[in-house]
Amino acid sequence: MRVIVGLSGGVDSSVAALLLARAGNAVEGLFMHNWREDERAPGCRAEDDRRDAVAVAGRLGIPFHVRDFSAEYWDDVFTRFLAEYAAGRTPNPDVLCNREIKFKRFLDAAYALGAEKIATGHYARVRERDGRYQLLRGIDGAKDQSYFLHALAQTQLAATLFPLGELRKPDVRRLAREAGLSNHAKKDSTGICFIGERDFRSFLARYLAARPGPIRTPEGRVLGEHSGIMYYTLGQRQGLGLGGVRGAAEHPWYVIGKEIATDALIVAQDEHWLLSRRLTASALTWVDGAAPAPTFRCSAKTRYRQDDQACEVHVDTVSASVRFDALQRAVTPGQAVVFYDGDRCLGGGTIETTDAAFGGLEPEQ
After folding, report:
1. Among this protein's residues, is 193 annotated catalytic?
2. Domain 210-269: which topology?
């Protein structure tokens, strides 16, 4: 089978290519340029990654291609990322990047090169049942990436191989080392792909004007001034500069909300303001093409590293209402809520509102 692997220069995609080649497939590599803005800035590793990808292709003896998707990335991912921050939300661009770039633009480019399938180094699995494709968690629970892949559709899953889905990270590095791949010990990339390890505030300030505003309590007491609410997220307790507030206990302050109309950052010392049991979600996508039922029970995650949380989901034509069995902390609008039935990822959506004490839905009676 002719398979084109998205070679990123990292160890995961390199071992994906290695395994597919060893299995007798006609493997080729394709490196994606997704970010062209300020590539020479400190912390931007695009050129280093490309060189590592070339070295891996050479070691494996496979053809190598490069495609530039930076314009598509800007239009389909980055502009939405900026719009969400401007609206006071905290977006997750990795979900959009997978749906719009890695499993759309890359897939189209691979087909144009004659590929039958594409493959990536994601830790996830695809299973076919009765002509339908299921997205499953990767065996390595610490590395599972199904959360970021929940927006993939049937056509994308049908065309995709995840060779690392049955492996754990230490085994991946061992295979790379034994195969003589020069990137076997390369550090995993972290953070948002186009930011790298650069300072997030200075990066964001290049594209969005920061608007200073008051830091205040829910009761209206002004405690100080912030440099821009886009720099803060719910539950944050560091970097607020609120030590020693007169008349307040010596306890941490937490961000509990944002008021866009007044540019106010709302803080409190009691974490109960961050607790919620319900959320609403929009922009729903379902791996099977539709929700399992109008109302169903499952587990869900509202952030990547979270343990599964039992819940009930009610779906209408454009949104979903989710009620958790247990209270949740700092559920953040703009992030993804992703639904699971055991190891099977059902789909997900974008968190819109919660019933946290400050703002959101009306509290349950």
Report:
1. yes
2. SH3 type barrels. (2.30.30)
